[in-house]
Design a protein that fits this description.
By secondary structure, the chain is an alpha+beta fold. It contains eleven helices and 19 strands. The chain has two domains: 160 residues, Nucleotidyltransferase, domain 5; 166 residues, 2-Layer Sandwich (Nucleotidyltransferase, domain 5), CATH 3.30.420. The chain has a six-stranded mixed beta sheet, with helices on both faces.
């Protein structure tokens, strides 16, 4: 009998820098919220998590602290992360009548042992009976429907909020992997800096993210798009509206995209020849929010001369992969970072 027999009460979790996604067996993704928490400094109680807390970023009075406790895919503010994870897991457990669940969490492939312990501790203190960790590119591959157990090379590039993870997978394990702290958040920062330097306008992270989602592209669009943005004019200090184009956004994001392409190249160079020939034949799979940047698949393919495909629903791949790992634990146990951890 599989030790995961009571699978319906287990949770898969993508603990991302930008978003947290939870999946429950038989129900799919049941929660998708920004990784943001707002805490009252006076009584240390949670004011809000997710969408509601994200609305508060940069707008809170002194007694409320709105933070993104995840940075570069790992816990940066342990107390805030613990409170956020506990709140989100409790919410899901109440809603779906779950006792003490077993939880599989997707984490970056470059995670250190100290960071692993921080994630395990935060999740176990949120009420998990057992905590398992799986590397995000492996989870993304499983979630995208790859047969990771077969003896052929598959390459996956997962461009998230805090990190870009690249892995070559064969026989249920990661053969070669690399990770870089350049992803969606870095692109937002590049957009903020570009608008400041070129348009003399100060804007926040929320505006930069909207600009990226609407105009972000890796190659020039056939029809150039533009949008109006509001910020603080740096010379006068007064609010002002300005227009930004997709061409300008492409220019702003170019350094990040080039660094991601360089990482794909260097990972391919480290890949054993037999697996590299499989990848040339099968192509590279893109997952994560960064896969939605217009033309990024074409640009990577053009630069490395290998076909590049975008996964279906790229934002959900890691969460779906953690869910599938729970459902088929006997087959996918080798995909976990270490064997199961028990918490009393």
């Amino acid at each position: 009998m599989s030790f995961f027999t009571f699978g319906s009460k287990d949770i898969g979790m993508d603990l991302g820098t930008s978003n947290i996604l939870l999946t429950i067996k038989g129900k799919g993704i049941v929660l998708n919220e920004p990784s943001v928490v707002a805490i009252n400094r006076q009584n240390n109680q949670i004011v809000a998590t997710g969408h509601e807390a994200k609305e508060m970023l940069g707008r809170t009075p002194e007694q409320i602290r709105a933070v993104r406790p995840m940075k570069d895919g790992v816990i940066a503010d342990f107390t805030a992360a613990q409170m956020m994870i506990k709140n989100i897991i409790t919410k899901a457990c109440r809603r779906y009548n779950i006792g003490k669940p077993r939880i599989v969490v997707g984490v970056p492939s470059g995670i250190t042992e100290v960071e692993e312990r921080a994630v395990e501790e935060a999740v176990s203190q949120a009420g998990a009976r057992e905590v398992y960790l799986i590397e995000e590119p492996m989870a993304a591959a499983i979630g995208a429907g790859m047969d990771v157990a077969e003896p052929t090379g598959n390459m996956i590039v997962d461009i998230g909020g805090g990190t870009t993870e690249i892995a070559v997978i064969s026989l249920g394990g990661i053969v070669v992997s690399d990770s870089i702290k350049v992803a969606g958040d870095t692109m937002d920062e590049e957009i903020i800096n570009y608008i400041k330097n070129e348009l003399n306008l100060a804007v926040g992270g929320t505006t930069a993210e909207q600009v990226k989602l609407e105009l972000g592209c890796a190659i020039p669009l056939v029809t150039q798009k533009s949008m109006e943005i509001r910020g603080r004019e740096l010379t006068t200090g007064l609010p002002e509206n300005k227009i930004i184009t997709s061409e300008q956004v492409q220019e702003a994001m170019q350094p990040s995209i080039e660094r991601i392409i360089d990482l794909v190249k260097s990972t391919l160079e480290k890949t054993p020849p037999e697996l590299a020939s499989d990848i040339i034949e099968r192509g590279i799979l893109l997952t994560g929010g960064g896969a939605l940047i217009k033309g990024i698949d074409s640009l990577i393919s053009q630069k490395i001369e290998i076909p590049v495909y975008i996964a279906e629903r790229p934002l959900d791949c890691v969460a779906n992969g953690t869910g599938k790992t729970i459902e088929d634990m006997d087959k996918l146990r080798t995909a976990l970072i270490r064997n199961k951890k028990k918490y009393s």
